[in-house]
Amino acid sequence: MSCNYCHRLARVPSNDAKGLRSLIMLVVWEIWLDRNARIFKHKETPCPMVISRIKNQANSWKVAGAKYLAALLAKWFLFSLLDGRFSNLFFARPVLGLVQR
Q: Is the entire prediction scored with pTM above 0.85?
């Protein structure tokens, strides 16, 4: 699986790949924090709440100057509007070239 990920990421344009790596780090970090809260504090957070925290953190990162992440999320937002689906913006289909038309 990781090999497939590396091959797909290698085909992503450079700036998009930088934004995607930032997004992956952000998502993994938030999942790690949630995991720690579940294990050590016995506090469970519903998935929609975790997703909301990820979106909030992504906005914070954009404000802090994560320009590649900001550009990537803007592309996904535009793609979701043009595709007629305003759903979760956190999926890699448009960037990784997996969109089937």
A: no
Do 71 and 14 contact (CB within 8 A), yes or no?
no
Q: How far apart are CA 50 and CA 32, in angstroms?
A: 11
Band (17; pLDDT cuts 50, 70, 90): confident
* 101 is a domain residue: no
How many domains would you assign to the chain?
1
Which residue's structure tokens are 């450079």?
Answer: 14
Rounded to whole angstroms, how far apart are CA atoms 94 and 101?
11
CB 61 within 8 A of CB 26: yes
Residue with tokens 């990781």: 2
pLDDT band at 80 (very low <50, low <70, confident <90, very high): low
What is the extent of the structural domain holding 78?
A: 2-96
CA distances, 51 to each of 60, 72, 74 (Å): 14, 17, 18
